[in-house]
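Hi again,

Forgot to attach this to my earlier email, sorry! This is the prediction with zinc ion bound. I've pasted everything inline since the attachment limit keeps bouncing my files.
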Amino acid sequence: MEYPNWDLPEGLSELLDERFEALQEERGFDYFEVATTQQSKVGGYPGWTQPPDWPDCAGCGTRMEHLLSATATEPGTGRWLPLDDRNPSQDQAATPSWRAEADPATLDAFGHNMGLGDIGGVYFFVCRVCPDTPYTHRYDC
Ligand SMILES: [Zn+2]
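Structure tokens for the complex follow:
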């Protein structure tokens, strides 16, 4: 698995792989279901649909910070689904948040209907080290 371009200490990537594989086997959900959100958002980490492509600042050379993402789709399932958009016929108390389903009556209204490839996104980055806060973007689809 390829995680965001963190500067991981040696061996940590392998340890994370083992833990997420165990999570998948024992509980049936994966890294993306429990550790990321892939829709439009401010902050956090990009929900890359292709291998991560973090930009370095042209001014100072440090890795830029993720500012916001605009994605082509908004998922109709999962832990980041707003409570008001969840399926009222699903038992919310017995359903883990990452298994939440959208209300079928509202599902067609999700998202902004922008075409970004098939399921891509545009990710904006900023450098807070440089005084002029340069920014850039990446696009994947
Ligand atoms: Zn910079």
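The first helix runs from residue 12 to 27. Helices lie at 12-27, 31-35.

That should be everything now.

G.
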